[in-house]
Design goal:
This protein is an alpha/beta fold and about 210 residues long. Strands 2-1-3-6-4-5 form a 6-stranded mixed beta sheet. The radius of gyration is 27 Å and the shape is elongated.
């Protein structure tokens, strides 16, 4: 699959890049995508949820009423879960939601996501981007030049560029990552995948090793 390299203003540079069929035209695996996205979302959870059980509630431990003869059910302390203000039965406790996935499965998931993007014609190749200083206006102008204003975009840089990242941070629906940080969830979440020229070869090296 060949794609033209686009300038920042949306014009064609006259150069073309061939995308590897081993990444952008594989037999997709939806279950691998599901597992990778599930892991990504699980890793976003703090897992700090907590409710108090009866042994953690502040209150008297005095027996509320006598055991027998009242005509009602027996009752212990006011901290019992059946009373208002009592402890919660089997409430949530802090826990770690993360789980392990094999590296090859994660690679398969990312390649499947990239294949879907290529099939939908949602991949663009852009000249390498570099800003001298953070500029939200400059990043918006870049998106306007590519006719991507208002769309969910994922720009993949070959290496960390703080100015480009800071420029995109306040732009709605815009996300900037490096090749090493590309993940299945963000690939599928974006309407358009914008790859910098140098990012293509690095992405192929990363996913084919």
């Amino acid at each position: 699959m060949e794609l033209a390299v686009i300038k920042h203003n949306g014009e064609d540079t006259g150069r073309k890049i061939t995308l590897s069929d081993d990444i952008f035209a594989i037999e997709t695996n939806d279950h691998a995508i599901y597992l990778d996205v599930k892991q990504y979302l699980a890793n976003q959870r703090q897992g700090t949820h907590k409710s108090k059980e009866r042994n953690e509630i502040a209150g008297s431990t005095k027996k509320i009423k006598k055991q027998k003869g009242t005509g009602g059910a027996r009752a212990g302390s006011i901290k019992s879960p059946i009373f208002r203000g009592g402890g919660r039965v089997f409430g949530p406790r802090p826990r770690d939601y993360s789980f392990k996935l094999n590296k090859k499965l994660k690679q398969l998931a990312r390649k499947s996501a990239l294949t879907y993007k290529a099939k939908d014609n949602s991949v663009m190749i852009l000249e390498n981007v570099s800003f001298d200083k953070p500029s939200t206006k400059g990043y918006i102008a870049l998106l306007n030049g590519l006719s991507l204003s208002g769309e969910k975009t994922l720009l993949v840089l070959p290496e960390q560029n703080k100015n480009v990242y800071l420029s995109s941070r306040n732009v709605p629906k815009a996300k900037v990552v490096t090749v090493n940080d590309v993940n299945t969830y963000e690939l599928l979440h974006a309407d358009k995948l914008v790859l910098c020229e140098d990012s293509v070869s690095m992405l192929e090296t990363l996913l084919l090793k």
